[in-house]
Amino acid sequence: MRNITIGFLMLIVVLVLFVSCNDRNGSDVKIYSYTTPIVDPPATFNIVFNIGGYGDRIAEVTFSQNAVWKIEKLGDGRVNMMMNTGNNDLTIISSDTLGLQADKVYYVVVNNNNYSEFNNYFVGFTNLGLDYASFEPKF
């Protein structure tokens, strides 16, 4: 009888932990893979990069409207990240706020040349709704 009681208590503990860690509301943030071009993304989205191996991983993003975006690393700060337009590079240390132009292709480059413990790495984009025309810096 004692073993049944202990087993039952352990089951309850596991169920409580499972339920408390479960996000019932889900996430409304769209997640894109870096391997597919991203066109006209929503106001908040993430890009996931598989950085299990060494070298650059490049995502291609094109926006349909001029807008001011917050761009941020959502993982370990040791991973290198930059934005590239084909002509200009901008290294993003942790996060940055940039005016991004419509119909221009932006490349998000994530580089993991030094660490073997990473697999998936996320970069977040949030449209801030600020006036693009008066905002600086534009990229």
Strand and helix map with partners:
Layout: H1 2-21, E1 30-33, E2 38-39, E3 44-50, E4 56-62, E5 67-73, E6 80-84, E7 89-91, E8 95-100, E9 105-111, E10 120-127
Parallel strand pairs: 1-3, 2-4
Antiparallel strand pairs: 3-10, 4-9, 5-8, 5-10, 6-7, 6-9
**What's the CATH C level?**
Mainly Beta
Quaternary organisation: single chain
Structural class: mainly beta
Mean pLDDT: 85
Q: From N to C, what is the helix and strand string? A: HEEEEEEEEEE
How many domain regions?
1
- Beta percentage is 35-45%
Globally, the shape reads: globular
CATH topology, by name, is: Jelly Rolls
Number of strands: 10
Low-pLDDT stretches are 7-11, 13-24
Work out the helix count. Answer: 1
Radius of gyration: 20 Å
Query: Spatial order of the strands in the main sheet?
Result: 1-3-10-5-8
Largest sheet: 5 strands, mixed
Work out the helicity level: 10-25%
First-last Cα distance? 70 Å
CATH architecture: Sandwich
Characteristics:
mainly beta; Jelly Rolls; single chain; 1 helix; globular; 139 residues; five-stranded mixed beta sheet
Provide structural commentary:
By secondary structure, this protein is mainly beta. Helices cover 14% and strands 40% of the residues. It has one helix at residues 2-21; strands spanning 30-33, 38-39, 44-50, 56-62, 67-73, 80-84, 89-91, 95-100, 105-111, 120-127. The strands form 2 sheets. It has a 5-stranded mixed sheet with strand order 1-3-10-5-8, with no helix packed on it. A hairpin with a 4-residue loop joins strand 6 (80-84) and strand 7 (89-91). The termini are far apart.
